[in-house]
């Protein structure tokens, strides 16, 4: 007969690091502290110049937070495997021996599936997946270890692999088989909707009164302050948005005349106060009413700077053959009006000194965006030129002239794509009786078109009356919005 207890203990010791067996469960605070190198490598604030990657990391961090919270809930049995994607910055902790592992922007994409059952193994798995050191966990002074490691106990010099009959006889789970099954698991659209449709409907119904309240508050404030629109830069929940509008409403009651200086503007709730590069009034959600009031008082000076900025754009355009200087929020870091003016001013002065010549209006109809990167100029697939402020201007002239025809062709295709995207969104909304169909900013028109085409081939009664968001992941948002990846899978899930 087998001596089951010693064998089982011996096999587990072989699989896990020796210090793991004598550690107590991590607390939530200790887990956050242990994951600091990870958060430092993936924090969205470090991806300001890369909005798509920033959006992916923001969404993945939200899902990771939910996973970690569920692990700490008393009495939980098991969690569904959660697939996450992160863009990891190149830091001192994760140097790469192979340069091709990183993009020219200094980050790489990492994808892994969480299927762990405790905080410590989850933390170690995340760090290992991102090629980050876990030494600080083993050597930290946070009392992770509740018992001293016994000296003299050694792990075997070679791995132990039990015969399949061992697991059949004992009833224990084969860890290799579990890992294999998890690696093959791939969520499909229909199975995910089957499992999450009822939960989404419940959350959506619960959010309906707040949604009506949000619409009412927004309409009242837009009318009272004569605003063009009110928007949110981040995906805050409905309750959070209502709270922000209530706060703005109280300020309007106290100082209506000052707030009406924003007449005709679009107001955006975001991370910091000021005026954006496109002329939107930004209200920092962490700022107090005093800061908001000061911002509204300064709006006339912002309007003056905005007029100067537009003149500067026209002067640059004139020097570059009529090409239009634009600012695209999806492809550029979030800049204040002052920051963007400074960027344009540097580029304009360089143009004046170099005196490169273009035939007047020869590039009319083309578009360019300025950025502070030090890379060479490039042509985006949507037709606009990406121009670094400090690029070589002689080379820039040759680059623009030789790619002007391709730029016009790309812009033509972009317009056709926009029309097709709009038609497919309308068709999908009508077919599935959706209340709303939208996409995250990080989803391109090409991805949206492909997604909608495939959706129209399906029969999905679960979607009736829902708010559907096309994203990079599956999720039911707190207010009932359904998020599905643009490249969703259907049918049998295999790796």
TrEMBL record:
Residues 403-430 form a coiled coil. Residues 187-489 form the DUF4461 domain. The lineage of its organism: Eukaryota, Metazoa, Chordata, Craniata, Vertebrata. GO terms for cellular component: mitochondrion. Keywords: Coiled coil. Residues 23-132 form the DUF4460 domain. InterPro entries: DUF4460 (IPR028031), DUF4461 (IPR027989), TCAIM (IPR027986). The gene is Tcaim. Pfam families: DUF4460 (PF14687), DUF4461 (PF14688). The keyword Coiled coil applies. This is T-cell activation inhibitor, mitochondrial.
């Amino acid at each position: 007969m087998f001596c089951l207890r010693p064998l089982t203990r011996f096999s587990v010791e072989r699989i896990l690091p020796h210090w793991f067996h004598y550690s107590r469960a991590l607390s939530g605070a200790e887990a956050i502290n242990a994951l600091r190198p990870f958060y430092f490598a993936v924090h969205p604030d470090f991806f300001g110049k890369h909005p798509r990657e920033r959006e992916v990391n923001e969404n993945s961090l939200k899902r990771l937070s939910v996973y970690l919270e569920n692990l700490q809930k008393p009495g939980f049995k098991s969690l569904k495997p959660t697939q996450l994607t992160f863009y990891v910055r190149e830091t001192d902790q994760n140097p790469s021996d192979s340069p091709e592992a990183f993009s020219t922007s200094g980050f790489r994409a990492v994808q892994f599936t969480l299927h762990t059952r405790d905080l410590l193994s989850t933390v170690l798995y995340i760090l290992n997946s991102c090629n980050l050191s876990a030494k600080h966990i083993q050597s930290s002074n946070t009392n992770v270890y509740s018992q001293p490691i016994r000296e003299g106990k050694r792990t075997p010099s070679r791995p132990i692999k039990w015969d399949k009959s061992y697991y059949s006889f004992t009833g224990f789970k084969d860890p290799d088989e579990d890992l294999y099954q998890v690696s093959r698991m791939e969520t499909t659209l229909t199975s995910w909707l089957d499992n999450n449709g009822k939960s989404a409907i419940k959350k959506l119904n619960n959010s309906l009164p707040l949604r009506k309240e949000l619409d009412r508050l927004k309409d009242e404030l837009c009318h009272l302050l004569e605003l063009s629109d009110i928007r949110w830069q981040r995906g805050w929940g409905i309750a959070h948005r209502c709270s922000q509008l209530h706060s703005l409403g109280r300020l309007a009651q106290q100082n209506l005349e000052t707030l009406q200086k924003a007449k005709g503007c679009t107001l955006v709730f975001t991370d910091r106060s000021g005026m954006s590069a496109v002329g939107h009034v930004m209200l920092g959600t962490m700022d107090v009413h005093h800061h908001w009031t000061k911002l509204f008082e300064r709006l006339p000076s912002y309007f003056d700077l905005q007029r100067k900025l537009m003149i500067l754009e026209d002067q640059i355009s004139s020097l570059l053959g009529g090409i239009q200087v634009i600012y695209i929020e999806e492809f550029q870091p979030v800049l204040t009006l002052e920051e963007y003016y400074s960027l344009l001013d540097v580029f304009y002065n360089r143009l004046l000194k170099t005196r490169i010549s273009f035939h007047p209006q020869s590039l009319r109809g083309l578009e360019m965006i300025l950025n502070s990167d030090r890379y060479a100029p490039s042509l985006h697939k949507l037709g606009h030129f990406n121009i670094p402020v400090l690029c070589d201007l002689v080379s820039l002239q040759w680059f623009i002239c030789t790619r002007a025809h391709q730029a016009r062709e790309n812009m033509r295709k972009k317009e056709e794509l926009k029309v097709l995207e709009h038609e497919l969104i309308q068709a999908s909304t009508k077919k599935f009786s959706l209340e709303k169909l939208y996409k995250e900013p990080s989803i391109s028109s090409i991805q949206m078109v492909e997604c909608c085409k495939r959706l129209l081939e399906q029969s999905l009664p679960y979607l009736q009356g829902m708010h559907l968001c096309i994203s990079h992941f599956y999720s039911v948002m707190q207010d009932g919005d359904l998020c599905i990846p643009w490249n969703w899978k259907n049918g049998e899930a295999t790796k």
